[in-house]
Amino acid sequence: MKRCNICDGKSFIPGPQNRLAGKAPPACAKCGSLERHRIGRRIILAISKRDEFANYAALQFSDDRLVEQAWFKRYEISIFNGPNSLDVQNINCASEMYDFVICCHVIEHVHDHRKAIVELARVLTKQGLLFLAYPNPCHRAATVDWGFPDWRRFGHYREIGRDFESEYRSIVPNTFVAAVTALDCVTESWDRVYIISKNASWMERLFHSSLQVEMVAGL
Ligand SMILES: [Zn+2]
C-alpha cells in the first residue's frame, strides 16, 4: 500500500484542477501533499540530521509541509500577498540570515527569476542550504519565457527547462548547485530539484546518499 512519507496517510485524491499523475491521484487526502512535497521531504531527510536543524533559522517561501516548523530553532514563512509577504526578488533582510531556505514552485511566478536566485543565495549562511524547485525541469529541455503572468498557466511567467542549469554558474558564482532527481513514493513520477549551498559538505552528503545527483555548478 502506498503511504505519504510526510503524514503516513494512505488515501489519495486528484490534485488541483482534478489533475492526475498518469492514472494516479497525487494529493494526500490527509496532509494535502503533492509529488513535489513528498520528493522534497525525501531528499531533505536523506541528507540532513534533525538535531542540526534544532539550531537552524529557516525561511520558507511556499506554504506546504516540505519541512516542519517544529524542526527549527527559528522558522519564518512568507506567504505571497499574505502574512510576512516577502519579495523573493528583493528579500527584505540582511545577508546570511538563514541556515535553510525553502523555495518550492515560486520563482516561475516572479518577473525576474535570476534575481530571485541571487537573493535566495544572499540570505543563506555560509553553512546554509537552499532547496529550490520549479515545475518539471525533468521533462522540459528548453526554457520558454513569455514575460508576463499567464493566468491560463497558473500565473507563471515562464516554464524553466534543463537549459537553465547552465546559467547557475554565473548567477550564483562560488556556490555549489546540485540537481537531484528523485521518485515520488505515491505516484512513482520523477522530479528534479536543486540543492544549493556555499558549503561543500552538503554536496558530499548528497553524493553519499542513495539519491541520483549531478553537479550543475560549483566545481
Ligand atoms: Zn500526507
Question: How is this structure best described in words?
Answer:
The structure is a single chain. The protein has 219 residues and is an alpha/beta fold. The termini are far apart. Helices cover 18% and strands 28% of the residues. The longest helix has 13 residues, at 35-47. It has helices at residues 35-47, 50-53, 113-122, 168-171, 200-208, and strands spanning 12-13, 27-28, 57-60, 74-77, 98-104, 124-133, 144-150, 156-159, 176-183, 190-197, 212-217. A 7-stranded mixed beta sheet has the order 4-3-5-6-10-9-11. It has a two-stranded antiparallel sheet with strand order 1-2. The protein is built from 5 helices and 11 strands, in the order E-E-H-H-E-E-E-H-E-E-E-H-E-E-H-E. The structure holds zinc ion (ZN).
Summarize the structure.
Helices cover 18% and strands 28% of the residues. It has helices at 35-47, 50-53, 113-122, 168-171, 200-208, and strands at 12-13, 27-28, 57-60, 74-77, 98-104, 124-133, 144-150, 156-159, 176-183, 190-197, 212-217.
As a percent range, the share of strand residues is 25-35%
Helix content: 10-25%
* Radius of gyration from CA coordinates: 17 Å
Largest sheet: 7 strands, mixed
Query: Could you report the average pLDDT, rounded to the nearest whole number?
Result: 94
Adjacency order of strands in the biggest sheet: 4-3-5-6-10-9-11
Give the names of the bound compounds: zinc ion
Dominant shape = globular
- State the secondary-structure class: alpha/beta
Q: In terms of per-residue confidence, which ranges show pLDDT below 50 for 5 or more consecutive residues?
A: none
Multimeric state of these chains?
A: single chain
How many strand elements? 11
